[in-house]
Amino acid sequence: MTITRFLLLAISISFAAHAAGTPICGATSTTAETRTCLENETVKAEAQLKAYLNAAQAQAAQMTDKAPSLAHAQDAWLEYRKQHCGDVYLFWGSGSFRYDAAAQCNLELTHARTHEVWSAFLVRFGNSPSVLPEP
Known about the structure:
Elements: H1 3-20, H2 31-63, H3 70-91, H4 97-122
């Protein structure tokens, strides 16, 4: 890994952690602990995404007789995440960090997708509360 790659990654992780407030898996001390933590966090994030997608589909079905099928968009998004995070994995070459970079990619994209679903389908207009809280 070149120093430029390392610096870019350090800056991007630092920015992402700062933006989120508390770094995800920041308390881990080994690569194996970090990887396990990221995998566990991704499982939780995917469960949350599924719940938000289910709520969004239920809302869409109530609002119109021509409800959108969120399944097609979700399938396309899953393929995008697979390809994009696969590219992240390849970008980091042969080092062990590539596993963590790809896992972080999966987690970040899953969080972003959940927020995207929430803002598009679960936020109501006016002063009404959203169907589910902001993720």
